[in-house]
Amino acid sequence: MSLFEYLKKHYFLYLMLAPALILTLIFKYGPMYGAIIAFKDFSPIKGIMGSEWVGFYNFEKFLSSPNFEVIFMNTLKLSFFGLILSFPVPILLALMLNQVRRAGVKKNIQLFLYAPNFISVVVVVGMLFIFLSPTGPINQLFSWATGEPVMFMSRPEYFRWIYILSDIWTGAGWASIIYVAALANVDPELHNAANLDGANLLQRIRHIDLPTIRPIMAIVFILAAGGIMSIGFEKAYLMQTATNMPTSEIIPTYVYKIGLQSGDYAYSAAVGLFNSIINVILLITVNFTVKKLNEGEGLL
To answer: In DSSP terms, which residues pair with 41 in a beta bridge?
Structure first.
């Protein structure tokens, strides 16, 4: 069958695909044209094509900047520790939920776990400032135990822990849905046979449940690792204070301040493009590594 005959036979499917494809081209690939300003001395008056070409000057400016090492390492540490600490939590939640046999109890637990995902980032950060303030409930316990409050939101050493743990609280339950759905497809007869053979709960999880969700775990890990430098800007920016900047200043907040607040669009575009290139390199590297460790199963 020729390509023309194939398209003629399945034209309705391609018509259904067309709106999504057009929107992707317009809103995803179209804006890539603007990345050219990273290589130019951009002037809004001259426009993108009329601005002077400066090559890699903006990238060299960022790499030689005294802030580069601090900002880059803050971004990498926050993403890396967040990935390592948060990745296993949804899996553990899914495995525990899978052991709950009463449907009503299971639904109530799932509702309790999924609810934080629907809380606005602004509200979450507001809650953090209230609960961790010097007069908040948590500091009241510390004051009772030690005699003085702990300045959680002002001390740089606490920023990463607060950011990561609050991320786990808001997102782990929702992220467990995909694993819960996969575990629901496990044949109960496998567990019954394992019980007859004398396998305990941990052995059943290790040899039945985990192999079932392993391909999903690999894909989720690759996607998470590929976006390791793409930290949410809103939460980090809202959590920033004048005193925790040594650890809270990351690439997305730096791009916002340089680009929108200072008006240096070309330099901020170069920093953002640098961040995206690092993400692509990490995605390819992690995918290659996971495929080697996961019997050739990966994302790409």
So the answer is: 52
